[in-house]
Design a protein that fits this description.
single chain; mainly alpha; two-stranded antiparallel sheet; 63% helix
């Protein structure tokens, strides 16, 4: 986008030319190099963590896509299977139990013929160790319950399609698990591991993703505000005359913004200053997503400070004057 704006300096026709593009890039470096950030000088370990963390995130996104495609297909011809694993919420087809049962019974006709012993065997092979009999009974009852059916030939064809989607889902589940383990192992060897994981809501998986996007080059961001803008945590202020608008930042590092949402969401359930800060933002009028971005903004600034000073997270310093740090009143 930035290069496209530079292209208008040399041609207003908006035509595409490799020669003009090459000249535009050369002139950017010749005249405006001082206005652009240099590439970060990250360590080899940080770059390796970036590869692992981004690959793991891509595998998780592909796993989610495969799960949604499989759920949409099962809804058309096998609703009893979805109800068997729905529980109290949406069906999690990525869980090992659901994938194991679908592999041996991809159609409603096959599911209705499953015995409790065979279901228990499949669950055991999938790794389940507790409540095998109760779970097998519940699944058998759900699969045998009356449900809407497709014609037998169509049902069989959809079962073959479900097996194909299941193979993709199995592959992405394994990839996500292996890549997350590799990212966590590399992250544990990084000097910033102790500082990053000291923050509430940051574990090995999310911490590796945060480090992968911000790197370990301390000179990459001039201040915490630059890091917040890079992550999309800081809003955009537009002022024209007497009109001032403050809006959500859309141009950002999408990977860092995604893990920041998870980070803030994982940090607010526990009672403490972070939870109080989130509650204040909601009381102020922010919606859930806006309040989480504000929490992410606050935590990201604290992380920037801790990484530059080598300190671990301290709630009393991060949120001074919190009611949780106040001394009890004398009797």
């Amino acid at each position: 986008m930035a290069v496209a704006r530079y292209r208008d300096r040399h041609s207003m026709a908006r035509k595409k030319s490799d020669h003009v593009d090459a000249m535009t890039l050369a002139n950017i470096l010749r005249t405006d190099a001082h206005a652009h950030r240099t590439l970060p000088v990250d360590s080899d370990l940080a770059r390796a963590i970036t590869v692992f963390a981004r690959a793991a995130q891509d595998a998780i996104w592909r796993r989610t896509k495969a799960t949604q495609e499989l759920r949409a297909l099962l809804r058309e011809y096998y609703p009893g299977f979805l109800s068997a694993f729905a529980g109290t919420g949406h069906t999690n087809l990525a869980m090992a139990d659901a994938r194991a049962i679908l592999a041996i019974a991809p159609t409603p006709a096959q599911g209705a013929r499953l015995t409790k012993a065979r279901i228990a065997t499949a669950l055991r092979r999938a790794g389940r160790q507790r409540r095998l009999e109760d779970t097998a009974t519940r699944i058998q009852n759900a699969l045998c319950a009356p449900q809407l059916r497709q014609p037998p030939l169509v049902e069989q064809a959809m079962g073959c399609q479900a097996i194909a989607l299941l193979a993709t889902l199995n592959t992405e589940c394994v990839n996500a698990e292996n890549l997350n383990e590799s990212a966590a192992e590399a992250f544990r060897n990084h000097p910033d591991y102790a500082v990053i994981t000291s923050f509430p809501g940051l574990g090995e998986a999310t911490g590796a993703r945060v480090l992968a996007e911000i790197g370990d080059d301390r000179g990459r961001f001039a201040d915490a505000r630059g890091l917040k803008s890079f992550a999309g945590a800081a809003p955009v202020t537009r002022a024209s005359g007497r009109t001032i608008s403050i809006t959500h930042r859309h141009v950002k590092n999408n990977r860092l913004a995604a893990v920041g949402f998870v980070w803030a969401f994982a940090a607010i359930p526990r009672p403490g200053p972070i939870k109080d800060h989130y509650t204040r933002r909601r009381t102020h009028g922010d919606r859930h997503a806006a309040a989480l971005r504000n929490v992410f903004n606050r935590l990201l600034g604290q992380l920037y400070h801790c990484l530059h000073t080598g300190q671990t997270y301290d709630a009393s310093k991060a949120f001074p004057g919190s009611i949780h740090d106040a001394e009890p009143a004398a009797a």
